[in-house]
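Data availability (excerpt). The following record was deposited with the supplementary files.
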Amino acid sequence: MVHQQSGHGHSHGGGPGGNERRVLLALVLTAGFMIAEVVGGLLSGSLALLADAGHMLTDAVALALTWVAFRLARRPSDQRRSFGYHRFEVLAAFVNGLVLFGIAGWIVIEAARRLGDPVPVLAGPMLVIATLGLLVNIAAFLVLRGGSDNLNLRSAVLHVLGDLLGSVAAIGAALVILATGWFPIDPILSVLVALLVLRSAWAVVRQSTHILLEGTPEGIDGGAIAAAVRDGVAAVTEVHHVHAWSLTAERRMVTLHATVAADTDRDDTLGQIRTLLERQFGIGHATIQLERASCDDHCGR
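Predicted structure:
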C-alpha cells in the first residue's frame, strides 16, 4: 500500500492586525471610563451603576486577554506547538464567557438582596454617569463591530454589549426614580441586563468548548465530505477515516484517506481534492493520505 500526504495549506482569517488595534482602543475606552462609574455608583448608591462598573472592570481584563490572544496568535509555530498559538484565541473566548457567567450571577444575587431591602438612589448623578457611560460603550462597540468575524473578537463584543445594556438600564432606572421615586426599578433592570448577558455568554462558551474538544465544525459532515470527494474526483474510488475539526472558528481542518487506482497521477489528485474541500466546505488545511487500490479491485479490468 502506498501512502502520500498533502502539503499543509493554511487559510488565515482576515484582518488580525486590525482586530488587535480595535481591541486595544476598546480597552482604553473601557478602562478609562470604569473609574468614573465606580465613583458615580458609590456616590449615588446605584446598583445598576456599580454593576456596570464591575462589569467594565472585568471587561477591561477580558479585553486585555483578548488583545494578548491576538498578539500570541501572530507568533510562528515551533517544535512544541506545530500549529502555533492560534488556539489561545479560543481559550480566551472560553475564559471571557465564564467571566460573564460570574458577573451575571453576582448581579442577580445583589439585586435579590436589594429587592428585599431597597436602597435609596441619587437619580441625578446616576443619570449623568450612565449617559456618559452609554456614549463610551457605543463608541467601543462600534470600534469592535468593525472587525472581522472572529470568536475571540465576538466574546469581546459581548462584554462591551453587556456594558452598553447596563448603561441603558441605569439610564432607564434613573428616569423612573426621578419620575416616581420607585427605587426597586434599579435592581430589577439590573437583573434583566444580567439575563441578556448570560444568554450571549452561553453561546460563546458552548462554541469555544466545542472547538477546544475538537468537535466537528458547524455545517460540516464527515459523510458529506467523503461523498463529495468520491463523486467529485474521478480517480478516487473510496474515502474513509474522515476527521474534521477546527483550530479556531475560522480555521477548519480535515484528515482523510482516499483510495485511488495504481496508475493515478497522485499530485493532480491531491490538488483536485484540496480544491474541492476549499470550495465546497471552506476547509483550507487538509491532510490527505492516498492509498493504492488492491489488485483484486483492478486486475483483469
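Summary of structural features: Residues 87-116 form the longest helix (30 residues).
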